[in-house]
Fold:
Amino acid sequence: MISANILIRAHNDEAIIGRTLQAVFAQKNDFPFEVIFCDDAATDRTREIAARFPVRFLERPGAPYKPGRTLNALVQAANADLLVFNNSDAVPLDSSWLANLVSPLLEKPQQPRFAFANQMPRQDATALVRKDSERAFGDGKIQATWRFFFSIASAATWRKTLVEVPFDEQIPYSEDVEWAWRNSRRPEAPVEIVYCPNALVEHSHNYPLPALAKRYRGEGLADRIIFGDAPNLVRELAGAARETLRDWNYLIRRPADWAEFPMAPVRRFVQRFSHWRGMRDADKRRNPI
Structure:
């Protein structure tokens, strides 16, 4: 019989980890699963709350935290056929999330596939966070026009796929995108990336500007390494302008959210300028002075 391991990474998530685990253990499917829980040295009650559920704990593999190293350790600790990654703050929204997420894998068990879920914004998400989430996920039509899109916040694949080709332990950000991009383009037996709009989790962040800048600087560094695009500030600022217009078009139809109008250009500038800085960071790493 097919079995699954649900792999959860957590750090200081006491406010939400109970909801996530409760929803995970409420899943209705035709195969057994075990949850492996890796706590990244939490200083709050995350581990205590997780211990109330039948999870198997895995200690963080060394310090400082490196996402690829932790993911590879979880894969090595797993012993099931299917591996389901789910962030501690990605809350399944119904009892069929797991079945829907793994269905593309079971349909074609001989085809290397990595399926990822539909991430719905939280109730407290700002209007522009909701808008970004709807564009990136939703019915998948917009993301299908982008060069590449993938998220391991809630995703599933066969264990053998990751045992054969582990995650890069050196890249500091976007380790999931790097793996998926590299392996979806390999000449022999490429991995098919499959979006599952009916596998629903609640997952979004209202980042304050400093945290937004940090995230996009990290993504810029990773994008330079993954895709090889050269840093281009003009291109980034043009992108910020285009996205601001989309923001305003979204907000104009929602009077209750008009207070977000002034922050839209600020937010987009911070994102794209930080992304450009991150790409330059990658070049400095390759060519130290």
